[in-house]
Amino acid sequence: MSRVLGIELRRSAALGSALIVLAVGAALMYLASGSMTGSEWSVGWMQLAMTQRLYLVLLWPLALAAGAWQGRREKKSDVGELFASTPRPRVRRAVPTITAMALAMIAGYLLVGVAAGVSIFRTADYLPSAVLGVAAVGGLTLIAGVWLGLAVGRLLPHPVTPPVLAVAGLGLLLGLPWATRPRGWLSMVFSPIDEMNMPDDYATVPWQVSGSQAIWMAALAVAGAMLFASGTWRTRVAALLPLGVGAALAILVMPHQNRIVTDSVDPVAKALVCAKDEPRVCVSRVHAGLLPELVGPAREALTVLAKLPGGPTRVHEDNTTYLPFVPAPQTADTALLRVEVGAGGHLAEPSAVVPETVIAAFTGPYECEEGPSWAQARAAGYWLVGQEPPTAVSEFDDPERAAEARALWAQLRALPAEQATAKVLAIRADALKCTT
């Protein structure tokens, strides 16, 4: 059997299919993410796995087309009558082809993950078990696609079948969310890409979601394999059975609520991990690999903040999540710093750690109206650091607010030292009104 499988791997479309999946998948992970180092998924392994699943929107149609291309082989070679005259059952003839194409899809998908993972291997310390489920569903999706393509290619052995099937697969994935509205959870049962875009730093995929999707993809794969290996119409009709059973089980397992993945938060990823020695500097578990880069600048900022009476003596990451919104607790002795991950899993702006940590001492929680304004906090922070505020912190900042911060900073610079210090302490006092 191993000898036959080896021949099939060399002579079939398996090797070429694996290389195509690898090339297209790696290009999507790096180029389509907007950076040659994949900054959109460089936070950690869960973000990488979810982004890779998102790009199944193109990889799955390619798997369908590869299977259909291979499924045409008997018709294209005109060996159907020759094979029919041999005593070997069709199922036994189909097993090497099915196995070779499945191995090709798994290898291509895994290599895409490896090609992306090398850029964050040194910084991504947190590997949640849910990543295995997300990756397994992705590989199973490609197997289901290539086996279904084999079946369609054998039943419809025309040259246009592979491209038409690829376009149909792409249309199906893109159209499912619209077809299942308002029951968004139903789209997640049958679509491996739904809600996998732009994962938050603390995102996770519940095991019920991965389990439901795995059931459906396994049913689709079994149906495709049965159709490809079938020799009679009864077997082809029987291939509908796993589809029905799989769909029913998958719907039963999937949580019946919309935005289940978008709203899911991994509490372990949010747990604080602290550096050794004092003063205390802590980040979220998912960002633990950034501690060596963060400790020095954070402690330098605490040295600056020591000039304030009762100033912060420790730095914690502000691990607030957007959906659902959970504000981080703020105390007088703690400066909350938002950690932004950039290309390659490193800090996005290492030079901004010191001023941003100092500014955090003048910033109240988001929902507090008694605290200082954004411009006041930045002006006070940069005055204390001794730097001029930048024109804009990021592309999302309001230029008018940035200009206001620079104007307030200029006013502080123009005042005598005692008056400027008094105004900065007043801004700090307003921020303390919002601490918990």
UniProtKB/TrEMBL annotation:
<feature type="transmembrane region" description="Helical">
    <location>
        <begin position="52"/>
        <end position="69"/>
    </location>
</feature>
<keyword id="KW-1133">Transmembrane helix</keyword>
<feature type="transmembrane region" description="Helical">
    <location>
        <begin position="98"/>
        <end position="120"/>
    </location>
</feature>
<feature type="transmembrane region" description="Helical">
    <location>
        <begin position="126"/>
        <end position="148"/>
    </location>
</feature>
<feature type="transmembrane region" description="Helical">
    <location>
        <begin position="214"/>
        <end position="230"/>
    </location>
</feature>
<feature type="transmembrane region" description="Helical">
    <location>
        <begin position="237"/>
        <end position="254"/>
    </location>
</feature>
<feature type="transmembrane region" description="Helical">
    <location>
        <begin position="160"/>
        <end position="179"/>
    </location>
</feature>
<protein>
    <submittedName>
        <fullName>Uncharacterized protein</fullName>
    </submittedName>
</protein>
<feature type="transmembrane region" description="Helical">
    <location>
        <begin position="12"/>
        <end position="32"/>
    </location>
</feature>
<keyword id="KW-0812">Transmembrane</keyword>
<keyword id="KW-0472">Membrane</keyword>
